[in-house]
Amino acid sequence: MASWIEDYALLSNMRSGPLVSRTGSVDWWCAPRFDSPAMFASLLGTPDNGRWLLAPSCAVDEDGEVDLDRQGVTDVERFYAENTFVLHTVWTTETGTVRVTDFMPLLSRTALIRRVEGLTGEVEIFQDVRLRFNFGASVPWLSRFDVEESDESGEHTEGVLVGMAGPDAVVFRGEPLPEADEDRSKRRHTGTFTVAAGQTKDFSLTWFPSHSTPPEAMDVNETLTSTLSQWQEWSGLYDPAASETKLAEHAQVKRAPTEAERAAELTVTQDAREDIIHRSLLVVRGLMHQATGGLIASDTTSLPEVLGGDRTWDHRLSWPRDAALALEVMLDHGHDREAAQLRNWLLRAVAGDVDHPSNVYGLDGSVVGRERLVDLPGYERARPVREGNTAGSQYQADVAGHVLVVFERLRRRGVQEDHLSWPLQQGLLRAVVANYEDKDQGVWEMRGEPQHYTYTRVMMWAALQAGVDAVRIHGLPGDVETWEEHRDQLAHEIWTNGYDPEAGSFVQYYGSTAVDASLLQLPKVGFVAYDDERMLGTVARIQKELTDRSGLLHRYRNLPELTDLDDVEAFASSIGQDGFAGQAAPSVSATLQLVDQLARCERVEEAVKLLDTVLGTANELGLLSTTYSTSERRATGNFPQSESHLNLIRVLDTLEVVQGRRAAQS
Questions:
Q1: β-bridge partners, 191
Q2: Which H or E run contains 615?
Q3: Model's pTM, two decimal places?
């Protein structure tokens, strides 16, 4: 059985991302790319769907499962080497202590290295390798070879395992090699070895195309040193604080903080803030493809947003709205190269069909094909397991807005347009005008009838405003009169149909009386001020109607008659506006957007308290999921999620500026 979602750690070589459980099992690994079929898929099934376990024998039961409560295990601690994706897991047992170091070399090859070091006493280690391809469907043919290798001690013979099936192949190195199970039906390789204090055992698994020869062995010491250095060098580019200029859209603070607010501001210290931002930036960088610049929403597919439910999605794809936000965040914090990659990825993606930009693309900017159902049991029996995402076939009218707004912000930072960028933006503006009357499925990818969603209409307004600014402020050519005409029509329409004066708030879509979390985004594009009475009324309704008892925020109320969002059993069989039964779990990212709104409106005490609640959903490594079940007190949804970490960085930047202003005033 797979571990809890929050018990996993992400590794990355910026092309693929294995997940390692607290119990020492690599339960998820898509190679050679994030969006490849999984080679280890026990996360969505059983160990027989593929895994690689390294753990003290005393922690392993007769079925090969790790039980941390078994006699002999006294403690397990894990942590990343500072500002890296090099994971250390320290096992303390009754006979001794060992450290397992897991990492992916930042090389052209796709490899995972696992080093076992004896720290004290002696510890017997159990190893279980179950190699699978294509989401566990293909069991490779394994052969053992003795090959001549050379190292500092000279030439020697090393045994390797080579497995292949169709286009995929792997080579496994390490001494001792695990042996094929005597029960051939188990289709696994297992073994034990003992590590004493001062001893080291290295193991590696490298993917390669089956038509090629296996890559040569790596010098693990040299590779580990290089990997640590490269990650830390990247983190060293960090620009430590968002400046006033970067957050110029903040409303001015009109009063000094209260004593309670001063106390609240101490909750996240400066050192803790920078540690959290460093880790979140690393997560975003780790989920960006090194070559294409495509940012995946998450490392996984089909982890359920409601445990046991069917809200399962493939998030190993790239959403333009995430790329636009990541572009700004990377630029704000000194990572210009990544910002340039994201900019260029956006251009290549929308260039595929500028008249009909998609809301989701492949890692390389390609059109997402049909969704395929994968024959796996699912995480804790949650099905279906999906490869691909049908959201790519939906019309979502906000896409052009995200692209055009971020390019306008780049222009304001002095980034010049090139021969490709402005013509493509003009094409997007023509598409906004051409599709002006069309309804869409909304940012939440609703499966019901299309609507005029207030948020997406505002993003269309923002796209046109960005086009107008490009001409009026920056002197670029364009049909500015048409854009101004449609912009003004949209503004009138939104205030007429997207705002309910009786309720004193914006509404989810025209004709609705409900609110949703997307409305928190309206001030971010300048449609309304953060502290405008009408926005404050919207925030009040969102807090009252969409938060659970812990304060975490639901994206929307799926069923109007569902009055208690904490009652997970209520209307569990009733189909709601998103096409699914019941209510989805609270969203980590949406909650952080609420924190940001509160902070910008001087409600710092509330903001910091809610931020603490969100940080409490992260695991000890600082990784955030997509959603969180308050009733189960467990992370849910795909993991880790880039949008959650991007919004966390934004919130901490906002609080830095707001608290800095308050300190100056007091």
A1: 127
A2: helix 604-615
A3: 0.94
